[in-house]
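Bench log. Compound arrived from synthesis this morning; before running ITC I wanted a structural hypothesis for how zinc ion sits in the protein. Inputs:
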Amino acid sequence: MQQSDWVYDWNLASPALIPAGTRVLLNDETLRDGLQNPSVYDPGIGEKIRILHLMESLGIDSVNIGLPGAGARAVEHVEALAREIATNRMKIRPNCAARTLENDILPIVEISQRVGIAIEAATFLGLSPIRRLVEDWTVDHLERTTENAVNFAVSHNLPSMYVTEDTVRTDRETVKRLYSAAIRSGARAIVLCDTVGHATPQGAYNLVKFVMDEVVKPSGEQIRVDWHGHCDRGLAIANSLWAVAAGVHQVHAAANSLGERVGNTPMELMLGHAHDDTAELSGDRQRCVSNRDGRSCRSHRESVSQRKHGIGEHRVQRRSFAPFRT
Ligand SMILES: [Zn+2]
């Protein structure tokens, strides 16, 4: 008896929004955004190192190891985590959050140099009209701030990941201007954020498409594009999948959906969606995702070019999505 004899699958009744074999990277925010949830505590370094190894064993591609600009304890923990990755030659790649201020970026430079590994500087900036009104900021000021921060990171040999808060509620002109400024200044990864959990799947798709068409393609550079979304409306997984459908290369997520307010995209569900058809049938993810090695597709080719810039990960080639249909 065939499976199709007893399951009629409406999921297959239209073309897939995310074609089978689409590759995606996963960035773990549990140890940074996850600790900003009101009902968690900041664990000791021993527990953080154990969590780091669990991420590695799950095949997660990159990890935010903290915001060292927050003070001495944060510096100590970030350095210990970076050293653990370096000493054990772990495959997971570290990044650190920082405001677009030299005082926040400098500790990342120093830790990267002391430990001897690349740490991506995820410099973030608020740019929405609401934030500009509250802070009395102009777009000119934000553009200069962006250029200075990215230039500072790149000139100190840090890979630059440029992040804007509340991107989903920011006008097209400002989005285009600031991300273009970041890329011009040397950022090779950009992060589009639904910091406030406002987006719908269609909104996530529209924003990613806009940035791909109006910012990334005209730049002529190989840029990794990330999606970072919160779950206030219960749409974080759907938004992340639609962002992948629109072309993002990496999704941010946290264990158990931890994170500010109601939290981030749940990592465990993203890992589940990242199973391919074969893996879902066999239940043996590690063995079956390896079957995808060498398969050529758009994202595979992009990941190869990303590796040349030190921002990709060979592991991406072993993870792919099952077809996702609306
Ligand atoms: Zn967040």
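What the model suggests: Residues 33, 195, 228, 230, 259-260, 264 surround zinc ion (CB under 6 Å). The radius of gyration is 19 Å.
ITC booked for Thursday regardless.
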